[in-house]
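User: Okay, second chain of the day. Same drill as before: sequence in, structure tokens out.
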Amino acid sequence: MKITIKDIAKLANVSVTTVSNVMNNRTNKVSQETIDKINNIIKEYNYTPNMNAKALVNSSSKLIGLLFYTDQEIYNFNDPFAGQLLEGIETISRKENYFVLIQTINSVDDIGVIRNNWQFSGFIGVGFNQQTMIEAMKIIQEPITFIDTYYDETELRELKDKEHLYFVRSDDKKIAHDLVSHLVSRGHHDIAFLTYRVNLNEYGVIQERLAGYQEGLVSHGLAFNSKHVFYNDQLDKVIEHIDQYSAIIVTADLLAIQLISQLKEQGYSLPDDCSVISFDNIQFSELISPKLTTMNLFQNLKGEIALGQIMVPIKGTPKENMQQTIIMDGELEVRESVKQM
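Assistant: Same drill. Structure tokens below.
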């Protein structure tokens, strides 16, 4: 049986306004007995509000668009990074009674198509570089947070008229520097760097981590050599030259796990033959042997912050001194994959 908000009010012997207040968590003037009665009726009849109708009445769809930008047909949701972000975003969306629509996009033009088919209260963007972010902002009018998008301050001036534009990211350069320092403190001086292949002329997460690795070496009196930088399609080359290094910094746990697996298949003993340290602190990092020493980037918290940033203008509750960009530090999880020399 499909019921309406009027039916619920009649069954609970209260006004429609009272039912609406309970459904929208405006309960400061409603007794707990009435709240329980209304919620029990909603649960018994499996009532779901008509979100399109609410959007027309309130000029708010209660819908957040989560856009994953990728050059693949579908974003790789097997990556634990995505799951951790979603956990954080879901935590806030449920608390605020908002819904999240997840969409893979392959070009900025896809955003226009999505906006023409749905009414959004705000957006969160993942996987955008500086150029695609700027292009997206020519289309998006709603509040938006970009996760892990780097930008040049001079380029951002193009968007000076854009309100409610936010960013949250890790302090990738500092964190990479910290990983070098940790390895040096354990007596390592021959340190390689393994990462995914990217365009080094762009400005992004991998580029910042590489810069932090380079600066970290120099700060400890160690020379940087580009020949010690390897990419994910060069694992055989890494293994071929593994005897030259006492430790390897890897820019993602998944890639580090892949490296460890292949090294063990070749008969190497870790961390005795080579230490491995990484970024992310995904769940699998504790399930391999040796357990991976890795930098916790608090991706779930990053998701919470991203949605929390845009909820301020969406709800119309201005916050004094609100930061446009939030930069997060990491925390090293010391386990078993780094040897004391």
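The chain is about 40% helix and 15% strand.

User: Thanks, on to the next one.
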